[in-house]
Specification:
Distance between the termini: 65 Å
Structural class: mainly beta
Number of strands: 39
Radius of gyration: 33 Å
Low-confidence stretches: 1-47, 471-506
Strand content: over 45%
Shape: extended
Largest sheet: 7 strands, mixed
Length: about 500
C-alpha cells in the first residue's frame, strides 16, 4: 500500500445517488407499515409557534391496499419561543379520536404513553415536540367496519410545563386517491438533436376521487422542453427550464380512471451527450405534494396552448406509485473509447512512474462520470509502490482503485470527445520483469450506446529492462546530479575566470 497520495482530483465512479434518512423516521415508517391503517397526509402548513399538524390525513380501509411509501407521514410539532430538542419530558401530549370511535382507532408508539380504549393516548414529551424525532405518540388507523370515504377528527392537545395549552385538529379520511404516473424507464433510438414525444398519463388506483390533479415534470437534465403549455409554470433557465408544474383544478379523477394529457411532452435531445433524464410526479390538489417533493416558487407561465386532460386509457411504460418516476432518454450517439497503454524503459531494481488510461474519441458524450472502468494488470515481476489516491477529507485519502492481486480496477471519468485521462502508478521492476496490460470495461450501473469499435479497448504495457536506463528511473537522481554538477562546474569556472581577470588589471 503506498504511503503518499498522488496529486489527482477526486474521481467520480459513475452516477452515484444516495438518499440519507433519519433513523428514527425510518423506524416510525416501519411501524406505520405494520399498522392496520397506513397513511398519507396533506400539504403541511408553514412552521409556527404552538401545536402544528396537517389538515388532512388518509388511512387505508380495513383490508385495503397498503399506502405507497411516499405517503407514510404524519408530522406533528410543537414549538414555543426558542425551545428546541426533546429535553426533559415535562410536557403532556393528548391525542383523541373518541368523537369518531366508529371510524378511527389510535395505535401508540414509543415510551411514556398510555392508551384508553384505543381512542385516547396521553404521552409525556419534552418542552418541544416533533413526532418524527421524539419516540412517543400515536398513529390513527381505520376502525373495523369503517369504509372508504368515512372520516373523523383527530384532536390533539399539548400542555406545556407552565400550563400553556395549544390545540390542533386533523381530519382523518378512510381511504383516499392514489395517483400513479405512467412512464418508460428508458426511451431509446432518438437521434442527436432530434425531438421526441413522451406520453403523460395518470391513473387513480385508490379508493376515493382525486379532487383536482397536479402534475410536475422535473429534474430535466440535458433535454430541452420545446413546447410551453399555458396551464403550466416553468422554472429554471429561460431557454432550458428544468421544471414544469401543471395544475388541473377542475379535473375529478374517480377510482380506476386514467387521464391522458395531450399532446404529451415534446423534448429535444442534446447534440453531443448520449442521454438525458427527467422525472414525473402527480398528486391530488386537495392533498398536496408528497414529503420531500418541492414545488419551485415563482416561474413563468407557458405561452402555448393548454395541456388538455382526457379521461381515457393510454400512455406507455410502467405505472409507478413512487414519489418520482424517472425516465432516461438515450440518443443514438455512441462514444468511441480507446485504452492507453505504455512502453516502459527501466533498470532492473529501479522505480518508474507509468501512466495508463483511456481516450474518448466521440462523437457521443456519456456525461460526467464517464462510462468505463480501467482494468490494469501490473507487469509480471513488477511491484506497485505508489498508486492513485482520492482525497476524502483534509489529510484523509483512500485508493482510487480496487485491488485484487496484481489487477487494479479504477473508475475513469473521461467523457468529452477529444479528451483523455491517465492514472499514475509507480512501479519497481525486478530482474526479470515482463509485460502488463490495460483493458476497458463498462460499469454495471451505466448502459451507454454500444461503442462502434471495441478492438481498441485493450492496450499493452511493455517493459524494456536495461541497466543503461538507470538514470531515467523515477527518482531521477543520476540525471539530476549530472545536470547539477554541470551547472556547478560552469559557475565555478566562470567565477575563477572573473577573479583571474581582476588580478591581471591590478
Amino acid at each position: 500500500m503506498p504511503a503518499q497520495p498522488t496529486h489527482l482530483p477526486v474521481l467520480l465512479s459513475g452516477r452515484r445517488r444516495a438518499l440519507l434518512r433519519c433513523a428514527v423516521a425510518a423506524a416510525l415508517a416501519a411501524l406505520a407499515a405494520l399498522l392496520p391503517g397506513s397513511v398519507t397526509a396533506s400539504a403541511e402548513p408553514a412552521p409556527e409557534s404552538g401545536l402544528v399538524a396537517p389538515s388532512t390525513y388518509h388511512v387505508k380501509p380495513p383490508g385495503g391496499r397498503k399506502r405507497p411509501e411516499r405517503d407514510k407521514r404524519l408530522h406533528i410539532r410543537y414549538t414555543r419561543g426558542e425551545s428546541e430538542g426533546v429535553g426533559e419530558k415535562t410536557g403532556r401530549l393528548t391525542m383523541d379520536v373518541s368523537g369518531a370511535k366508529e371510524t378511527l382507532r389510535l395505535k401508540q408508539f414509543g415510551s411514556g404513553c398510555s392508551s384508553t380504549g384505543g381512542v385516547r393516548v396521553v404521552c409525556k414529551v419534552g418542552a418541544s415536540y416533533n413526532s418524527w424525532a421524539d419516540w412517543a405518540g400515536a398513529l390513527p388507523y381505520a376502525a373495523p367496519g369503517s369504509k372508504a370515504g368515512d372520516r373523523g377528527e383527530l384532536r390533539m392537545r399539548y400542555e406545556a410545563p407552565d400550563g400553556h395549552v395549544s390545540t390542533a385538529t386533523t381530519t382523518v379520511v378512510v381511504g383516499g386517491p392514489i395517483l400513479e404516473v405512467r412512464s418508460p424507464e428508458t426511451v431509446t433510438g432518438v437521434r442527436p438533436g432530434a425531438e421526441t414525444v413522451l406520453d403523460l398519463a395518470v391513473r387513480n388506483s385508490g379508493e376515493t376521487t382525486a379532487d383536482g390533479v397536479a402534475l410536475m415534470i422535473g429534474g430535466v437534465s440535458e433535454l430541452t422542453l420545446t413546447q410551453r403549455f399555458s396551464n403550466c409554470r416553468y422554472t429554471g433557465d429561460d431557454d432550458a427550464p428544468q421544471t414544469a408544474y401543471c395544475t388541473f383544478p377542475d379535473l375529478r379523477l374517480r377510482p380506476g380512471q386514467t387521464v391522458v394529457f395531450s399532446p404529451g411532452l415534446r423534448l429535444r435531445t442534446h447534440e453531443t451527450l448520449d442521454h438525458g433524464s427527467l422525472y414525473q410526479t402527480a398528486w391530488p390538489l386537495d392533498v398536496g405534494p408528497y414529503h420531500d417533493v418541492l414545488v419551485p416558487d415563482g416561474g413563468t407561465a407557458g405561452d402555448g396552448p393548454p395541456l388538455r386532460p382526457q379521461v381515457r386509457s393510454g400512455g406507455s411504460g410502467q405505472w409507478s406509485d413512487e414519489r418520482e418516476a424517472w425516465a432516461e432518454v438515450r440518443t443514438d450517439n455512441p462514444a468511441d473509447y480507446a485504452a492507453i497503454g505504455a512502453h516502459v524503459r527501466a533498470a532492473p531494481g529501479g522505480e518508474q512512474e507509468v501512466r495508463v488510461g483511456a481516450r474518448a474519441d466521440g462523437p457521443g458524450d456519456p456525461g460526467q462520470g464517464g462510462a468505463y472502468n480501467l482494468v490494469f494488470t501490473v507487469p509480471r515481476g513488477a511491484e506497485v509502490v505508489k498508486e492513485p489516491m482520492e482525497e476524502l477529507d483534509e489529510d484523509v485519502h483512500e485508493p482510487t482503485c480496487r485491488r485484487r492481486g496484481a489487477v487494479y480496477t479504477c473508475p475513469l471519468r473521461v467523457h468529452e470527445p477529444g479528451t483523455e485521462e491517465t492514472l499514475p502508478f509507480t512501479l519497481k521492476f525486478g530482474e526479470n520483469a515482463g509485460d502488463g496490460s490495460v483493458r476497458l470495461t463498462k460499469r454495471k450501473d451505466d448502459e451507454p450506446p454500444a461503442d462502434p469499435d471495441t478492438t481498441d479497448h485493450t492496450a499493452a504495457v511493455t517493459v524494456d529492462l536495461d541497466v543503461k536506463y538507470a538514470s531515467t528511473t523515477a527518482s531521477g537522481h543520476g540525471l539530476a546530479w549530472s545536470v547539477t554538477g554541470g551547472l556547478a562546474a560552469v559557475v565555478v569556472g566562470g567565477g575563477g575566470l572573473l577573479l583571474w581577470r581582476r588580478r591581471q588589471q591590478r
